[in-house]
Write a structure and sequence with these properties.
The protein is α+β, with helices and mostly antiparallel strands. About 40% of the residues lie in helices and about 20% in strands.
């Protein structure tokens, strides 16, 4: 019985050691594996190690034998490639809604998906700058609770902090309002995590920064309001389509808009609306093109358009043209 237990333990120890310490540049020799097993109370011969590695390979682990360098075995492919782990680490570092403490812990957990040597190499490249990060350590639990509420079709309630004055911000006395909400989707936009929801008192959608939410809990026995009552969607809440329509997470009535753009901003327009956006050439001027799409008419949309200066003109709707003109005049008046 003890022999059978040691046999199973031996397989696991070999696999764990290969995962932690081997990669293409750092193969593990049979002698190293035998020494490791000995330290863990298992004495064995080379033949049995060969047999175990063969069994692990037959099971599906990509173990390669090499004669290069000192020779040995290494894990050739893992669940995540090194470049994928690098991307995940960069995403965690750049996410302002993740606190500094959680960022370090997450990066350490992500790096553990590769070998020890790869982890050292990645860690040496990690650059933690002093960008603004959230101080809400409960955001993990908020995201989890909101996700469970969306999956089960139930309402949530929370305390929402919003600062109205500089003095309150400095004193940490931002207004906390208790809200009951119908949650529909979570969106990562403009370096923040937002909840798209409905306040039962109104017939529209609203966006809330999840890092400003505290004490999130599911309202037991509740049922979420159908999103078809507060949005254009009927069969399912199309998060991708909704994200394209909303600018800087400002809400507004969705309308058809048409823009007249210089070719110099074509890539930015495609980045925003997608390569399948309805574009058409301006046959009167080859330096321009038109794009038609749906968007929420809001200050966010107006600010987005204004960044292009005279490279983008609003063709329609007239109301958007007027709002843009009014904002431009207000800005001009500040310049004397």
């Amino acid at each position: 019985m003890a022999g059978q237990y040691n046999s199973k333990k031996k397989l696991l120890l070999i696999m764990d050691y290969l995962m932690k310490y081997s990669d293409e540049d750092n193969p593990v020799s049979t002698g190293e594996l035998i020494e490791m097993l000995k330290r863990n109370g298992i004495v064995c011969e080379r033949k049995s190690v060969y047999s175990d590695i063969e069994a692990l390979s037959d099971f599906g682990f990509d173990i390669v034998k090499t004669r290069l360098g000192k020779g040995g075995y290494f894990i050739a492919s893992r669940q995540f490639e090194e470049v994928e782990i690098r991307l995940l680490i960069d995403a965690v570092q750049s996410a302002s809604f993740i606190t500094p403490g959680k960022s370090k812990k997450l990066i350490k957990n992500i790096a553990s998906l590769c070998s020890e040597e790869q982890m050292k190499k990645l860690s040496s490249r990690v650059y933690i700058d002093n960008r603004v990060k959230s101080d809400n350590e409960t955001i993990y639990y908020s995201i989890d609770e909101i996700g469970r509420a969306i999956d089960s079709g139930r309402q949530i309630e929370c305390d929402y902090a919003k600062c109205r004055t500089v003095s309150k911000l400095k004193n940490g006395a931002c207004v906390e309002k208790h809200l009951k909400l119908n949650p529909y989707a979570m969106i990562w936009s403009a370096d923040h995590y937002y909840l798209v929801a409905n306040n039962p008192k109104y017939d529209n959608l609203m966006h809330l920064r999840i890092d400003r939410m505290r004490n999130v809990s599911i309202v037991e026995g509740s049922a979420v309001r159908p999103f078809s009552e507060v949005s254009d969607y009927t069969d399912f809440f199309d998060v991708a389509d909704y994200s394209r329509r909303i600018f800087n997470m400002y809400s507004g009535e969705t309308e058809d808009i048409e823009l007249h753009c210089r070719m110099s901003v074509l890539e930015q327009i495609i980045d925003r609306f997608g390569s399948d956006a309805p574009l058409r050439e301006d046959f009167d001027n080859e330096d321009f093109f038109f794009v038609r799409t749906k968007a929420a008419i809001s200050d966010g949309l107006i600010s987005w358009i204004m960044q292009f200066e005279d490279n983008v003109e609003v063709v329609s709707p007239p109301g958007l043209r007027e709002k843009l003109r009014e904002k431009a005049c207000r800005i001009a008046s500040l310049c004397g």
